[in-house]
């Protein structure tokens, strides 16, 4: 199976956003990754519903929405109304994780949870059956273009073992510092999906960069 590639809109050229969306539509990317930041949970602001509403009519790929915010469950209905495919919330701001995942699925979206670099994968062991995906941050969230944290490879392997032992179909996604080299290592360790921002949008040939990640196989 080819690797799922989810380019991060955070690194796109917002002056020419329609052109960037067209490139994604014509590429091997399976999803479009949307990073929503509130300046509280992470030290940065990104974009919110006006951008999502603007691109929704023209994007042909499923939306992979990553909420780096302190109260993600306030926006379940709004995201569902925009036909978002996957709603991704952080473990670190989810004291009632099982309830939250149930609500996301009830709204018709796939349920995913993100773990920061310092958060061990064992903490999602009791909700794996409720998860469509786990996103492992391989940089500290909040900014693009950061250096890949090598320990992520060990976390991917541990999580892959947890999932496979139970015979689950839960996907493993990784976000941060992804390029051809780190992407190959992550896929070899057991990752299913790769989020790539600056590596894709900063490339001379973004579609070729996407295809290179897409062709990585375990």
UniProtKB/TrEMBL annotation:
Question: Is Isomerase there in the keyword field?
Answer: yes
The protein in question is named: Ribulose-phosphate 3-epimerase
What is its EC class? isomerase
Catalysis performed (reactions): D-ribulose 5-phosphate = D-xylulose 5-phosphate
Sorted alphabetically, the keyword list is: Carbohydrate metabolism, Isomerase, Metal-binding
Which pathway does it take part in?
Answer: Carbohydrate degradation
Give the family per the record: Belongs to the ribulose-phosphate 3-epimerase family.
